[in-house]
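Collaboration report, partner site 2.

Our partner group contributed sequences for two proteins of shared interest, and the home lab folded both. The records are reproduced in the order in which they were received, starting with the first partner submission.
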Amino acid sequence: MNKSELVEALAGEKNLTYKKSEEIVNIIFDSMAEELAEGGRIEIRGFGSFVVKDYKAYTGRNPKTGEIIQVSPKKLPFFKVGKELRERVDDK
């Protein structure tokens, strides 16, 4: 499922216009992105949680040329699946 399919599903389920459903989905995604950008944590019970993980700098290698490169430290979002979702997916 992609974002537009999610918007369509919400519109159909709750009898909303596509535009209103799209606005709701955008508000949710924007709020989640903002929370993670500020270093926060998001937990949706029964679904999972999102956190930001810090990765340290390291020396890597360009796989194409073999050249040694320095990889900068970075922060990336990480999703941990919740128990209920994991069991629901495993049952199918």
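Second partner submission, folded after the first:
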Amino acid sequence: MPVYEYQCKACGVRFERVQRFTDEPVKVCPECGGSVYRLVQPVGIIFKGSGFYVTDHRAASSTTGAGKKSSKEAGDSGTNEKE
């Protein structure tokens, strides 16, 4: 069963109630008896699978890591080793 959070319009008290989806929302503050409203809380989202972001985990062969140079670039450091 979901947990709903409510806030009183009169005294500002926040409280939670475990309720079923079919239950009527709470309308009276348990502290002062004023009217209350239900607060909407953000939900955690987890993106799974491929294609959401560039930073997704991919196979090591498809991309090089951030900040790493390929073997061709690593040998090209500006010095000439043959001389």
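Feedback sent to the partner group on the second submission included the following. Helices lie at 71-75. The mean pLDDT is 76.
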